[in-house]
């Protein structure tokens, strides 16, 4: 009796799993295996492809620009992720303390950047940063400052691109943080009040530890999202000045567009995949996700 | 027992699912490749149309209207003669609005003129071009023929991405070309492209009224780089920059070729492509020219527009602008009120010798894709548009305000009869003082040009010019070694 039921359940389970397995196979597994294969070839669309072994990987690894792009990606992430975590943590705490009507207004408004596409955001910010007549230089002008070439200066280009990235992402992270804050039982804070804990102590000993999983999640997703960011630099600077804003994906796109053979960009993508996976694993290891104490 | 069996089942199920789906996928793939021409071309139409509309979401309305027009033309074509008409797909880079309109006009006229071939035109914006074409090629759905700049022809021919035209076009159409242009479009003894136009890449435009106001003689444009910079200093004032030219590595990569030629006598690679050839005074001078001009404070810290776009000058924000001959068309079409204040002169050279090269001749041609299923039909249209009745091309040069030049003798002959063309002083100046001293664009890979222009840009941004030059030399030599470039110059191998 038990056995038969068990088997029936299995059959249904396989049936229900089948669509997603098939879709994953078609859209993930097969392309991945195919790209692995292609990365060992000088892949041409017009002539027979030539097997070149690890040449493509060697080419990419020896390319200063690839290493530079990785470094740019990491610098960009270090600007975007911590800043957006801090900003959204503050916003989430403010919203939590607001009355419901005001809170829903703020929630809606901070979500607006999230639904704006990166391309549109880039164009808006290109206007803001415009050398002649841009908003940023107009404001600087009030203080008698010379206009600055935000996007053409080696020093300011990357931070100038990090800003719209934070702006685009912080709405969503704030809402996730807010959900996490609402999950912390009020009784903990009441207990802490009785013990005479101040606001900093409450935040440090109650809020932050209980938000750990959320922060971990946001760090890992934020890391992956911002290191694979490319449309902001593509539209705003084209990777310049002097490759200071060429993120890894923009590097890959440039090679895909310009190179005669495609093997190089595929090898670069696979290497990026390895780097991303490696760093995500390190983050998970360091911030060790755990089940919340309260369950 | 039980769990183990279960596991077995999962793995076999997974395996069979993967097998089945991979078989299905390969079946689909081979089906797509083997399927007959008609079904394949309709497929490609649909996908390309849809990608076009998404690509252009941020772009001008002309593009979307072209898609609609294509779709409409396509529908009516199918309805009229479903089986006999051969449809060929034509992708054109997006150029000036007048050029886009000219393409549309003559494609329509060609389609109406006969009932054998239907040309479907799609105009693709320049920044989407490379990846869109690559994606189409990867999917085996590349257009039958498309625009290509001269610099790309030799390599595309070497890789068989484009077909030789000798057997599919009338030899007489090639006899009509000027001899130096024949060289642009041929590799070995074969022609791989039919040229549409040539245009010099660097011409100096300056504001005569501002020259007078600054105490400079408006009839005496600068002839040396130093004069150009000195004039720029006198012309710079609040809201107006003394000089504008390409200033990002991407723009400098191609806009500085002429200056490199003029100062060094050659370009960045040795003829056999075996090593960099930039560690010399000529290249040093080019780098210093840009660095000096930038540091003199006469250029905007951030380019007001790309090199190909001369509108900041037309808008009055710049007193001296270096741009290509195409800027004339832009001024005449978009900035009519500025025309009597504009002076046109050859781009100054390092030492002031007017016969020194300061511009490269670039331009566009039409090529037939290596995998096109209808090369003859494609070639028929190319002959009609570029190689046939001179009036078609004269119509083009008129809409471009004579800012571009014909690669064909017969077109120039016919144009002599046209009063607007023959009496145009700017056209005459460029034809007499710029084009004769211009050289062809290089055909070596873009990476090499980028290494040089990165050196120029980094010198502008404060790197020591010597260090920038040394890094560029190393980068080029590394690139040659890695991509096994030595001895692969397609022009030399033949």
From TrEMBL, chain A:
Q: Where is the ABC transmembrane type-1 domain?
A: 66-283
State the UniProt keywords alphabetically: Cell membrane, Membrane, Transmembrane, Transmembrane helix, Transport
For this protein, the parts annotated as crossing the membrane are 12-34, 69-90, 110-129, 161-182, 203-227, 266-287
Major localization class:
membrane
Specify the protein's topology with respect to the membrane.
Multi-pass membrane protein
Transport recorded as keyword: yes
Family under the similarity heading: Belongs to the binding-protein-dependent transport system permease family.
- Protein's organism: Paenibacillus albus
Write out the GO biological process terms: transmembrane transport
Any one Gene Ontology cellular component term annotated for this protein: plasma membrane
PROSITE patterns noted in UniProt: ABC_TM1 (PS50928)
Q: What is this protein called?
A: Sugar ABC transporter permease
| SUPFAM superfamilies given in the database record | MetI-like
Cell location: Cell membrane
């Amino acid at each position: 009796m038990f056995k038969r039921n068990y088997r029936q359940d299995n059959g249904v389970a396989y049936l229900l799993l089948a669509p997603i397995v098939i879709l994953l196979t078609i859209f993930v597994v097969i392309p991945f295996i195919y790209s692995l294969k292609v990365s060992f070839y000088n892949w041409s669309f017009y002539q027979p492809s030539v097997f070149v072994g690890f040449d493509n990987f060697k080419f990419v690894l020896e390319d200063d620009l690839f290493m530079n792009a990785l470094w740019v990606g990491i610098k960009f992430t270090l600007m975007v992720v911590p800043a957006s975590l801090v900003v959204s943590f503050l916003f989430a705490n403010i919203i939590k303390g607001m009355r419901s009507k005001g809170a829903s207004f703020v929630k809606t408004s901070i979500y607006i950047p999230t639904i704006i596409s990166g391309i549109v955001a880039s164009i808006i910010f290109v206007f803001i940063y415009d050398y002649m007549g841009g908003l940023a230089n107009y404001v600087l002008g009030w203080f008698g400052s010379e206009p600055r070439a935000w996007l053409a200066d080696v020093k300011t280009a990357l931070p100038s691109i990090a800003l719209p990235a934070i702006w685009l992402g912080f709405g969503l992270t704030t809402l996730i943080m807010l959900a996490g804050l609402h999950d912390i039982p009020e009784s903990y804070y009441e207990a802490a009040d009785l013990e005479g804990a101040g606001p900093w102590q409450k935040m440090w000993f109650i809020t932050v530890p209980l938000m750990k999983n959320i922060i971990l999640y946001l760090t890992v997703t934020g890391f992956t999202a911002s290191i694979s960011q490319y449309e902001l630099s593509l539209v705003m600077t084209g990777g310049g000045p002097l490759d200071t804003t060429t993120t890894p994906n923009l590097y890959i796109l440039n090679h895909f567009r310009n190179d005669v053979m495609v093997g190089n960009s595929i090898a670069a993508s696979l290497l990026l995949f390895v780097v991303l996976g490696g760093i995500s694993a390190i983050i998970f290891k360091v911030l060790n996700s755990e089940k919340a104490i309260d369950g | 027992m039980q769990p183990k069996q279960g596991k077995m089942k999962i793995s076999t199920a997974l395996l069979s699912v993967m097998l089945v789906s991979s078989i299905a996928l390969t079946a689909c793939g081979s089906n797509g490749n083997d399927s007959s021409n008609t079904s394949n071309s309709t497929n490609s139409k649909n996908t390309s149309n849809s990608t076009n509309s998404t690509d252009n979401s941020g772009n001008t309305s002309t593009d979307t209207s072209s898609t609609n027009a294509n779709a409409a033309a396509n529908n009516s074509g199918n309805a009229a003669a479903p089986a006999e008409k051969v449809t060929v797909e034509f992708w054109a880079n997006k150029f000036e609005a007048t050029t886009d309109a000219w393409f549309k006009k003559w494609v329509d006229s060609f389609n109406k003129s006969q009932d054998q071939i239907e040309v479907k035109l799609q105009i693709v914006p320049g920044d989407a071009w490379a990846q869109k074409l690559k994606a189409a090629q990867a999917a085996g759905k590349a257009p039958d023929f498309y625009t290509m700049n001269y610099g790309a022809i030799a390599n595309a021919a070497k890789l068989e991405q484009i077909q030789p035209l000798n057997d599919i076009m009338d030899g007489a159409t090639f006899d009509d070309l000027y001899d130096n242009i024949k060289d642009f479009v041929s590799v070995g003894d074969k022609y791989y492209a039919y040229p549409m136009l040539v245009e010099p890449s660097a011409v100096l435009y300056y504001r005569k009224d501002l020259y007078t106001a600054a105490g400079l003689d408006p009839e005496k444009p600068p002839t040396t780089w130093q004069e150009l910079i000195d004039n720029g200093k006198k012309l710079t004032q609040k809201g107006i920059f003394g000089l504008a030219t390409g200033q990002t590595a991407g723009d400098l990569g191609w806009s500085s070729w002429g200056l490199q030629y003029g100062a060094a006598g050659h370009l960045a690679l040795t003829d056999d492509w075996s090593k960099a050839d930039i560690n010399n005074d000529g290249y040093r001078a080019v780098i210093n020219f840009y660095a000096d001009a930038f540091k003199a404070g006469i250029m905007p810290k951030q380019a007001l527009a790309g090199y190909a776009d001369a509108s900041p000058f037309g808008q009055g924000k710049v007193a001296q602008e270096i741009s290509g001959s195409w800027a004339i068309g832009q001024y005449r079409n978009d900035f009519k009120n500025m025309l009597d204040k504009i002076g046109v002169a050859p781009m100054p050279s390092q030492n002031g010798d007017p016969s020194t090269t300061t511009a490269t001749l670039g331009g566009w041609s039409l090529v037939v894709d290596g995998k096109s299923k209808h090369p003859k039909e494609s070639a028929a249209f190319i002959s009609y548009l570029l190689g046939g009745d001179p009036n078609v091309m004269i119509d083009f040069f008129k809409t471009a305000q004579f800012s571009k030049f014909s690669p064909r003798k017969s077109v120039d002959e016919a144009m002599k009869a046209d009063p607007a063309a023959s009496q145009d002083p700017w056209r005459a100046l460029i034809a007499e003082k710029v084009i004769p001293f211009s050289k062809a664009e290089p055909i070596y890979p873009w990476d090499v040009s980028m290494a040089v222009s990165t050196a120029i840009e980094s010198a502008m941004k404060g790197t020591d010019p010597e260090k920038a030059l040394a890094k560029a030399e190393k980068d080029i030599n590394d690139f040659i070694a890695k991509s096994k470039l030595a001895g692969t110059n397609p022009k030399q191998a033949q």
